[in-house]
Every structure is written in C-alpha cells, then in structure tokens.
Prior knowledge:
With 138 residues, the chain is an alpha/beta fold. It folds into two domains: 3-54, 434 Repressor (Amino-terminal Domain), CATH 1.10.260; 57-136, 3-Layer(aba) Sandwich (Rossmann fold), CATH 3.40.50.2300. The protein has helices at residues 3-10, 14-21, 29-41, 48-55, 77-90, 105-115, 131-136; strands spanning 60-66, 94-100, 120-122. A three-stranded parallel beta sheet has the order 2-1-3. Strand 1 (60-66), helix 5 and strand 2 (94-100) form a beta-alpha-beta unit.
Amino acid sequence: MNLKQLSHMLALSQTTVSRALNGYPEVNEETRRRVMDAAKRHGYRPNPSARRLATGKTGMIGYVLPTGTTVDIDPHFVEFLSGLGDYARSHELDLVLSPADPDDQETTYRRIVANRQVDAVYISSPRPADRRVALVNT
Length: 138
C-alpha cells in the first residue's frame, strides 16, 4: 500500500496523511490516530525514494571497509559489525559497506560524500587530526 492508496481509502488528502504519519502538530489527534491505525493495519511502509526526496535523508549509515589480500581483519570485526547493525536496525536505518583500497581510502570517503549516499559514516579508530573526519564534514 502506498501513500496515495492509503489517503484514498481514508478519504483524506495525501498531504494530511503524510503529515499525520510524520507527527506534524497541525493534524488533530483523532485524525492522526485514524491514519496510524490504518497504516499499521494495511502494512503501509513509506517509499524510501520518496522519503529521501522529501527529507533529504537516505536512512543509511556508511562504513568504509578496506579490502584486498593484504588486509588483516581483526577477529572481533564481526562482533563490531553486528553491534553497528543492531544500532542501525533499532533506528530503522540501513548499513552500507563501501569497499576501499586500503592504501587509498580517501577516494572512497570522497565518493560517499559527493554522492550523498549516507546520512552518517562510522569512522573506526579515529586519530587526532584524522583526515577522514575532515572528509565527511565537507
């Protein structure tokens, strides 16, 4: 079910339904409850592409993963990744892994920032004056 179908079923405008789903204060509580109940009952999920256009947010966290035969993966990496995944899931976010040349991770960070692929990037083991922090804050 999409927003148009939900609004048609409720005999409300798409704007009203959208505002009710997003907690806008100008929607009265009875309408909000009616919309939320119908959305839950009919399995409404927002269209991620439409939401991205409307909010400018991707709903994704990025992690740059050095790859190749010379990369030595910490034995606790899977544990770390699972924890990061739990955080993302609990906040209804997706986790995006971006493979990078271990000797040129900056190129991957620059691409992620330029393409606005994620809302945030997890930087592991940051150091003082870490260039990766400067790259993602541009």
